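Dear Dr. H.,

I hope your travels went smoothly. While you were away I took the liberty of generating a structure for the chain from your last submission, since the lab meeting agenda had it listed for discussion. I wanted you to have the full record in hand beforehand rather than looking at slides cold. The sequence, exactly as received, is reproduced here:
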Amino acid sequence: MAEQFTKSMARNIYYGGGFFFFLLLIGLTVDTMLDLPKRDHRENITIAVAQGKKHWEDNNCIGCHSLLGEGAYFAPELGNVFQRRGGGDEETFKQFLISWMGVQPLPIPGRRKMPQFHLSKQEINELAEFLIWTSRINNNDWPPNIEG
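The corresponding predicted structure, in token form, is as follows:
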């Protein structure tokens, strides 16, 4: 190696490193795109799931809750709420969600208040379908504990 670091050496390291990391980015992107269909079970997306996602977005649920680690951490993670509150039974979870949404805001002093969104029973069922679908995504066991 030369005793002095030249401009051409710096340029070669810059371009070589840039090219290497660009190829790495492309490779990881291709790997992710090939792996996603196996993990997200997109074939199970129904009209109710899509409508539930729309209700999730329209009511800005992510402004307080996180879903699969994304969103605000003001309120509980909802990526596993189906297992937590429904025990794996869809009807039990839907009844829980209808009841829970119906009694908001809870009159407990010192507790953060979830607003009353005045969603219909059908809208809550669609939101439940979205949360059930979300809970079945292969997410490497996120969140790390059952209480989110």
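Two observations you may find useful: Helices lie at 7-40, 47-58, 81-86, 90-102, 121-135. The chain has five helices and two strands.

With kind regards,
E. W.
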